[in-house]
Amino acid sequence: MSDFILGAVAYDAKVVTIWDGFRAWFAERGLSFDYVLYTSYERQVDAHLRGDVHVAWNSPLAWIQVERLAKKHGRTAQAIAMRDTDRDLTSVILVRADSPVKSIADLRGKRIGVGAADSPQATLIPLLALSDAGVEPGRDVEVQRHDVLLGKHGDHIGGERDAVKALLAGKVDAACLIDGNRLAFAREGLLAPNATRVLHQTGLYDHCNMTVLDGGPPETQRFRELLLGMSYDDPQVRPLLDLEGLKAWLPGRTKGYALLERAVERFHTLDPWLAVR
């Protein structure tokens, strides 16, 4: 039997450890599995459409890319699995605790620090919140991007970290990040207690999913069964699940991408990319 191939983006060295470990675990259960790493989600989406991989571990923006590209070419995309930690996330807009800014409207004429341009959580969704409130990014508020590892859709948290550092240094008046990283930055001491406050918290959204095209090959069902059957109590996979940031794999769903869909439409994020494919 030929290998069932997964595509993933190499946003961190730990990606090799994770998928080497899962590869061995799948092999012990009769699934011949391998993986290919890409330097960007755009390369991964193109490879998936060419048939180079059978399933892709996609960011939320990559999901929208592949779903729209599949439709354009008369194909179908399906989200078959996601992490428990991919569901019902929020982003926040932070200001310094002593800031005179009390509402989104007060950000007019100010500077806002965001993550990488292609980060759903630290750029696109928070800027949609501003736009929805009548404060247009680039027109009413100056947007300062922190483009760490473009193409990785914000998976690398360096852009969010730089946005927070800019806020603390007084270089911007507000900073955008996923709420989970706000808590992580507080634990590591970057955000001192009572140094900042949350100006706005976005609505709920979902993050990554495992995507197949046209239902995938026959091995897709076995791959999904094995993913959903992984137990956090299994000492072999537990360290891998910890590295990947989950306790359980869940069935994929797409209802949690509505906010990002609106952001992509509002800012025409994918128009040039889709136009040449």
Structure summary:
This protein is α/β, with parallel strands linked by helices and 277 residues long. The protein has helices at 14-28, 41-50, 60-72, 120-132, 158-168, 179-188, 219-229, 238-244, 258-267, 271-275, and strands spanning 4-9, 33-38, 55-58, 77-83, 91-96, 111-113, 142-144, 174-178, 196-201, 209-213, 249-251.
Overall description:
The chain has 277 residues and is of the alpha/beta class. Helices cover 38% and strands 19% of the residues. The protein has ten helices and eleven strands. The chain has a six-stranded mixed beta sheet with strand order 2-1-3-10-4-11, sandwiched between helices. The protein has a five-stranded mixed beta sheet with strand order 7-6-8-5-9. Strand 1, helix 1 and strand 2 form a beta-alpha-beta unit. The longest helix has 15 residues, at 14-28. The chain is globular. The model has no long low-confidence stretch (mean pLDDT 97).
